[in-house]
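Researcher: Here's the sequence for the chain we discussed earlier.
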Amino acid sequence: MRRMLIGLFLVVALALPMVVLAHSQSMREVVVLAVNDVYRIEGIGGGPVGGLELVRALRQQLEKDHPDLLFLHAGDFLFPSLVSEWTKGAHMVEMMNLLDGASGTFDPRMLVVFGNH
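Model: Thanks. This is the structure I predict for it:
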């Protein structure tokens, strides 16, 4: 009987901190919007399909339900196209800065890889 009580005590003593810790921490969901190889700023077909405007709209929509959304650009950022040769990638920096809707401010939830993935 004494061994059973000691065993029960040990089980409770070891399990109780885990149960309390599990209930005290709130669950968090991580939502990531990721793009890469953006070769065109404007949409196709004269602009109505795709493009960075669509990415901005998608980000706005997702942020309504997920305010901590991470936005990732996974590569081919500065020199994805022929235009980049003329602008030295400046147009892509400008466009990416507009994707958070707050031009001229730092966006801590947007991460960009400069190279090829």
